[in-house]
Amino acid sequence: MAMLEQTVIKDNTLMPGEWYGGQLHLAPPTDQAGGKKSYTIVITVGQDRHVVDVNQGPAGT
Q1: What CA–CA distance (Å, rounded) separates 25 from 45?
Q2: 47: pLDDT strictly greater than 70
Q3: In this structure, are residues 43 and 22 in contact, taking their beta carbons and an 8 Å threshold?
Q4: DSSP-assigned states of every residue in 29-51
Q5: DSSP H helical segments within 1-61, as ranges?
Q6: Are 56 and 38 a contacting pair, CB within 8 Å?
Q7: Cβ atoms of 40 and 51 closer than 8 Å
Q8: What percent of the chain is modeled with pLDDT above 90?
Q9: How many Å apart are CA 1 and CA 25, to the nearest integer?
């Protein structure tokens, strides 16, 4: 639990005007039919809305 508490951002960690960044890794869905697919991922954090459009197709295309 102590190790988890050291890595988790707390509400008093940042001062006003400061920001905190990171990465989000998503595994793509497996393509069952072999065709091209399009996905829209919407991430909402507080009042911020982020839209990521993803196109998936066979390797090398």
Answers
A1: 16
A2: yes
A3: no
A4: PP-SSSS-EEEEEEEEETTEEEE
A5: 2-7
A6: yes
A7: yes
A8: 10
A9: 24
CA gap 57, 35 in Å, rounded = 6
Identify any residues that bridge with 24 across adjacent strands, giving them in sequence order.
none
Separation CA 61–CA 50 (nearest Å): 27
Between CA 31 and CA 7 the distance in angstroms is 35
Six-digit token string for 29:
């869905």
Do the beta carbons of residue 58 and residue 49 sit within 8 Å?
no
Q: How confident is the model at residue 51 (pLDDT cuts 50, 70, 90)?
A: very high
